[in-house]
């Protein structure tokens, strides 16, 4: 039976740990967190404060949830005196399979890119792997938090990082601006965010980008608003946002590899 080691219990690691527990209450899970606040007991699995306390075996699946900038320090704590440390699923933004292999003893690697909607079953996690069995395991785990998307080109994971991982923040920023304007239009402050979220919920439920034309009736309010978005080059702003985010992934990989 696979033992799961969730490394880094921040925003993402906690959700993944809980997801593993939801997959099966019998899953054998150990969390690794270097600075777990004292007295923290609400995690449904054992936690140790360093990976050096664990001897990895071929039956292990490590799920790396630390920040990319911490990879180098983490690699120094790892007990590399093992012939086969099992599989590694990394959710780190930017860090390529090649860089992971440079710092870690793992050869079976999967890069996964979820988002924090996993606990609502709404994180369609993209993943890329060099190992078929690890891919099946990754698909199985993340299918409990949304619909996994298997990509065959590692480059696509950096694009997924910008759109699936970071993207929810970009969309929420749009909703924030809508909410601010609703308030400026004197909608009560407790209702303004609800208006924005109503718009977001509707758009998300449509799951079809071509629906814009159905919402846009000729000479109507939507058409007038879209004209302003076009005038201010909204598409370029968003494309440039995504492109910059992808470049940051490449930068993180480069900086880590050159460390
Ligand atoms: N947040 C998202 O929505 C999201 C989405 C997709 C992918 N990701 C990826 O997920 C990863 C984690 O993001 P996050 O938002 O969860 O960050 P986070 O909240 O900062 O969590 C990272 C955790 O790892 C701990 N840590 C650092 N070094 C460690 C070590 N050697 N051993 C054990 N624990 C260690 C950190 O402790 P300290 O704070 O004490 O350093 C922190 O608690 C990142 O690589 C990010 O690219 C995040």
Can you walk me through this structure?
The structure is a single chain. This protein has 10 helices and 8 strands. The chain has 259 residues and is α/β, with parallel strands linked by helices. An 8-stranded mixed β-sheet has the order 3-2-1-4-5-6-7-8, with helices on both faces. The protein is elongated, with a radius of gyration of 21 Å. The mean pLDDT is 95. The chain binds NADP nicotinamide-adenine-dinucleotide phosphate (NAP). NADP nicotinamide-adenine-dinucleotide phosphate (NAP) binds next to helix 1 and helix 2. Residues 7-13, 32-35, 51, 65-68, 70, 73-74, 77, 91-93, 113-116, 165 line the site of NADP nicotinamide-adenine-dinucleotide phosphate (NAP).
Instruction: Please trace the helix and strand order, writing H or E for each element.
Output: EHEEEHEHEEHEHHHHHH
Strand content: 5-15%
Structural class: alpha/beta
For CATH, the homologous superfamily of the largest domain is named as NAD(P)-binding Rossmann-like Domain
């Amino acid at each position: 039976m696979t033992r799961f080691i969730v490394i880094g219990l921040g925003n993402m690691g906690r959700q993944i740990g809980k997801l593993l527990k939801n997959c099966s209450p019998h899953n054998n899970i150990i969390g690794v967190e270097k600075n777990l606040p004292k007295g923290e007991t609400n995690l449904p699995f054992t936690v140790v404060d360093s990976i050096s306390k664990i001897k990895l075996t071929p039956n292990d699946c490590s799920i790396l949830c630390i920040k990319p900038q911490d990879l180098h320090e983490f690699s120094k704590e790892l007990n590399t005196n093992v012939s086969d440390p099992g599989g590694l699923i990394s959710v780190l933004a930017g860090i390529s399979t090649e860089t992971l292999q440079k710092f870690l003893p793992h050869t079976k690697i999967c890069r996964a890119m979820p988002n924090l909607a996993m606990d609502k079953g709404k994180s369609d996690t993209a993943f890329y792997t060099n190992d078929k069995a690890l891919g099946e395991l990754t698909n199985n785990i993340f299918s409990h938090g949304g619909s996994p998307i298997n990509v065959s080109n590692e480059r696509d994971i950096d694009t997924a990082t910008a759109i699936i991982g970071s993207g929810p923040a970009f969309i929420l920023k749009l909703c924030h601006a809508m909410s601010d304007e609703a308030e400026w239009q004197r909608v009560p402050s407790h209702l303004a965010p609800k208006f924005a979220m109503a718009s977001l919920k509707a758009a998300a439920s449509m799951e079809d980008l071509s629906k814009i034309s159905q919402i846009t009736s000729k000479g109507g309010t939507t058409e007038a608003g879209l004209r302003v978005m076009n005038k201010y080059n909204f598409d370029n702003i968003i494309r440039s946002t995504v492109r910059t985010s992808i470049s940051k992934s490449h930068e993180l990989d480069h900086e880590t590899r050159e460390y």
